[in-house]
Structures are given as C-alpha cells and as structure tokens.
Backbone:
C-alpha cells in the first residue's frame, strides 16, 4: 500500500471557498512535502514541513502536521480556478535512504 | 540549465522495442530520481542516484528496466523489450543533495507502447 494516502481522492468546490486535503502515512518521517501537478505537467513543490514543526504557512497555503497521528493537511484558502490541479503529499522517511515516497493524490477542481 | 529537462516528451513505440529516456538535471544537483506515473495514478518510485551511484534501485519493476548516470549529471532510463504495461509518464527530478528538501521535476516523458 502507499506510504502516503491522500483523501479525498477528488474534491470539487466553488471559487472563493477553502479546500482541505489530508495525507496519512505509516512510518516515521524527516519531513513531509506537498506538491501540485497541473494536468500533463511535472510536479511543482509547494511547501515542506519538518517532523518537529506543527504548522506552516505560505501565502494562501497552510499545512499542519500531526506526527502522533501520522497525518498532515493542506488548506488552500480563498481558492481560485487556477488552483485546479492534483495535489500530492510526499514523505521523506527516517532511514528511508533519501527516497521521497508520494501518495496517490487529490484531484481538486475549483469552479467559477 | 534553468530546470530539469527530459527528452523525448512523447514516445510511441511498438511492443518489444527498446526505448531510452533522458534526463538532464539542474546543474549542481547531485541527487537524481526517476518516477513512473500511470494514467490518473500517483508516483511510483523507480530509482535514485547520488552522484553516479545508485544506492536505491528498489523500485525498478523488472530486469528490463535499467538506468545509468554519467559524470554526475545526465541520466538515461532504458526499457528493453517494452510491454504495453510500460505505458506511462516517466518523471525525472533532482535536488541539491541527499536530504536537502524539495525535488525539482521535469515535464516528463510520455511513453506509449502499442
């Protein structure tokens, strides 16, 4: 099974609403990262949160990390149509040999 | 270069043929990764290079898959005797070094095996 699993698999909201995506993982991590992928393109890094951090902000993005529950959430506030994309979490595992393991992704659609 | 460059961007081949996919990472990045993404799926790890060596080949799906990296820069992923299930987007990413944070991705090579 995937190390990182996002939920929901798909999310459809109206422009201006907030979007929340969750990621769960199974083993201890050094850090957790969120990436965005527009259709047919490569992935773009959004934000990194280290295992000793609980919350991080970047513009309209807010990421939380709960290592006791092995979960993270990505909140996009005041969403825009341009936020439509797939969002992936990736875990940098403790003792994982520098391999980032990606989840299955959440497909976000923001409608006008 | 300015970003991670992959070629070809699209490749259509016949079952049984060999293909080579190329990745040119960001200059100075010592860590290089190959992932595979099937339609609508997440990313499947294939192989990781640190410099020219590959400490982790655990993700290569079969012995038909191989990869090399020369001069600590360009990497080539080779798939021999391609099968239809090899059809996917092959993504390359690099970062400055081990455990240095974010990956920078190329646009991918879309492989279609007929």
Residues:
């Amino acid at each position: 099974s995937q190390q990182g699993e996002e939920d929901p698999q798909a999310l459809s909201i109206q422009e201006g609403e907030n979007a929340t995506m969750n990621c769960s993982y199974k083993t201890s991590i050094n850090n957790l990262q969120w990436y965005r992928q527009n259709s047919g393109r490569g992935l773009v890094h959004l934000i990194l949160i280290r295992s000793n951090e609980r919350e991080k902000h970047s513009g309209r993005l807010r990421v939380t990390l709960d290592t006791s529950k092995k979960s993270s959430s990505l909140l996009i506030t005041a969403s825009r149509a341009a936020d439509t994309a797939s969002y992936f979490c990736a875990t940098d595992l403790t003792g994982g040999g520098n391999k980032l393991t990606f989840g299955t992704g959440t497909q976000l659609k923001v409608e006008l | 270069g300015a970003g991670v460059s992959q070629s070809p961007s699209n490749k259509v081949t016949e079952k049984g043929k060999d293909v080579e996919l190329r990745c040119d990472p960001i200059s100075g990045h010592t860590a290089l990764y190959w992932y595979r993404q099937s339609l609508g799926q997440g990313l499947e790890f294939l192989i990781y290079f640190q410099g020219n060596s590959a400490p982790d080949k655990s993700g290569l799906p079969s012995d038909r898959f191989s990869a090399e990296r020369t001069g600590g820069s360009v990497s080539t992923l080779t798939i021999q005797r391609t099968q239809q299930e090899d059809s996917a987007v092959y993504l390359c990413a690099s970062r400055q070094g081990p455990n240095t944070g974010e990956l920078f991705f190329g646009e991918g090579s879309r492989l279609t095996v007929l």
Summary: Chain B touches chain A at residues 4, 31, 33, 35, 41-43, 45, 48, 50, 55-56, 91, 93, 98-99, 101-108 (CB under 8 Å).
